[in-house]
Amino acid sequence: MIVVLTGGTGGAKLIEGLAAELDPAELTIICNTADDCVFHGLNVSPDIDTIIYTLAGMSDRERGWGIKGDTFVALEQLQRLGNDAWFQLGDRDLATHITRTQWLREGRSLSEITDHLRRRLGVRSTILPMSDESFNTYVLTPQGEMSFQEFFVKEHWKPTVSAVRFEGADQCRAAPGVIDAIRIADAIVVCPSNPITSIGPILSVPDIRAALVTRSDTVVGVSPIIGTTAISGPAHKLMIASGFEASALGVVRCYADFLDTFLVADEDRCLIPELKRLSVNAVASDIRMPDRAARCRVARELLALIRK
Amino acid sequence: MIVVLTGGTGGAKLIEGLAAELDPAELTIICNTADDCVFHGLNVSPDIDTIIYTLAGMSDRERGWGIKGDTFVALEQLQRLGNDAWFQLGDRDLATHITRTQWLREGRSLSEITDHLRRRLGVRSTILPMSDESFNTYVLTPQGEMSFQEFFVKEHWKPTVSAVRFEGADQCRAAPGVIDAIRIADAIVVCPSNPITSIGPILSVPDIRAALVTRSDTVVGVSPIIGTTAISGPAHKLMIASGFEASALGVVRCYADFLDTFLVADEDRCLIPELKRLSVNAVASDIRMPDRAARCRVARELLALIRK
After folding, report:
1. Is residue B49 part of a domain?
2. CB-CB neighbors (< 8 A) of B121 in chain A
3. Is residue B295 part of a domain?
4. What is the overall mean pLDDT for chain B?
5. What is the pLDDT of residues B47-105, one digit of tens each?
6. What's the domain range around B85?
7. Is residue B242 situated within a structural domain?
8. Which of A41, A77, A95 is the closest to B102 by Cβ?
9. What CATH number did the domain enclosing A201 receive?
10. Which of A93, B93, B152, B183 has its CA 20 to 30 A from that of A139?
11. What is the DSSP-derived secondary structure letter of residue B153?
12. Which of A42, A73, A84 to mutate to test the interface with B (most CBs of B within 10 A)?
């Protein structure tokens, strides 16, 4: 059994590859939930949904979010009724959020709801929220503090960031199944997701980080950074704001207490000696995953490292 | 200013005519809310929505409910996620329910929400829920007691009905503006809606019925029954279950304490002497309203009776 720690888009690419190269039932995927938001009164869990849709073969690969071929009829009408519509919710996608909101209101946990949704959509991998308790990522900018979705989607990650904060993370416990999965995993994969706002919140749940540290001989990762820039999104910007250098080296420092093996870009081969001095077994490869073939290849390379 | 008491479909036809024959801003429409339901955790007010959509020119006249040309993408996905989908909610229609649910959760009243929705959709008539407090219609059948929507939509009004009950109606007060509108109205129109489950709940709000009785010289109605059958829907069935005969005469008995003038079908001309003995000024006409021309004609005839 392989445990995977992930955010949305970047992580989904590697997970698509892993699910193709392994029996998907062997994957237990722990998702970031600190970007969860309420839009129009509906509870949206962007990273969980991206992973479910990816594994259900429903995701819109071009856009990197939402459901392939979805329509936006309800959203247009919500706008006509005066609602803010900067967060795009498609009509099929809405069914997920309507169901989640209804079940949460009925007192069910995000874990239970996530498991229901993935099963209904035919996903065989286990998908776990990092926690059933909610906490949120806030980003400090010259315009003031904003939620991660405001920064990322509404402001197109343009504002300067001076700090990132996870409100209430230290009070949270891992969702049921998370710690057990980490304990018995054959390997733990840290996806090439944003180390600060995607993997960072997962690590900020105290019992998750503690469990990872006990399994540090089994943790492999893929870099989300090539040179000094994220393959996609604002990871480099948020790393600098959090006091890390924007590089594969900076990513390894984020994971210093539990990372064993790290796959970096060919362009970052020169960093390997320094990574080894940090006691990380580093390997260089082509880590860009623009299409399914590349996703499968990177997954195979990662699985080969795990087996070694 | 004309006050109109209405349910959904039947009432919407007369209201379409009245809004064409008058300045729509002169209409204050009081809607039944005892059929309001929660579907998929969303608050649906079927009668209010039918009236708003009708006056906004958006209603699906063929089907008699929902929005013309609406799509059902979210509903199909809700079904795929295991939700019950016997109540059809279109994608554009969903935007109404999502907005209403969000605003109710934020503590706003149904009156305030209804006013917001009708204004955003360009409706100039005032639309008021009968009450901001919720109570529901229950129908007793051999299968047990069920909500009106279960009986009407899910069971296609097939079960035998032995009783109709409005739970909590006696504790409710009229919504803001309802009693004032009744007090100052030049005329009060009782639509050809179901006397038991559409107009009945409005009359079961104690202060509304009391206010109507004080204005009994101004109340005109149109019969929803021709012979012994409702023009559409189960009115005749529910009238019998409630101890009234299924006829224009039975309808007048439902409204005995406040009805002044009643428009009945040509086929029911023979009932006029008996209606007059009940002190109701009865007039016979063609009261079927299959198209816009008929709706305008019936509205004109009603307005002529009001002016006389």
Report:
1. yes
2. 80-81
3. no
4. 96
5. 999 999 999 999 988 787 899 999 999 999 999 999 988 889 999 999 999 999 999 99
6. 30-129
7. no
8. A41
9. 3.40.50.10680
10. A93
11. I
12. A73
Where residue A134 falls among pLDDT bands split at 50, 70, 90? confident
B116 touching chain A per CB within 8 A: yes
The answer to whether the Cβ–Cβ distance between B71 and A73 falls below 8 Å is yes
With bands split at pLDDT 50, 70 and 90, how would you rate the model's confidence at B34?
very high
Token pair belonging to A32: 């970031």
Return the biggest CA–CA distance within chain A: 59
Q: Contact at 8 Å (CB) between B187 and B307?
A: no
**Domain count across chain A:** 1
**Nearest chain B residue to A38, by CA:** B102
Looking at beta carbons, which residues of chain B come within 8 Å of A120?
80-82
The CATH number given to whatever domain includes residue B40 is 1.10.8.240
B279 part of contact set with chain A, CB < 8 Å: no
- pTM, to two decimals: 0.94
Residue A308 pLDDT: 84
Q: How far apart are CA B201 and CA B13, in angstroms?
A: 20
Among B187, B230, B246, CA closest to B212: B187
Q: Per the CB < 8 Å rule, is A94 touching B96?
A: no
**Mean pLDDT of all residues in A107-120:** 98
- Upper half-sphere CA count for residue A190 (Cβ side, 13 Å): 33
Cβ neighbours of residue B97 under 8 Å, at least 6 residues apart?
Answer: B39, B42, B43, B44, B89
- Does any CB of chain B come closer than 8 Å to the CB of residue A40? yes
Of A78, A80, A120, the CB nearest to B98: A78
Give the distance from residue A159's alpha carbon to the nearest chain B alpha carbon, in angstroms: 30
Is B111 at the interface with chain A, CB within 8 A? no
In a domain, B293, yes or no: no
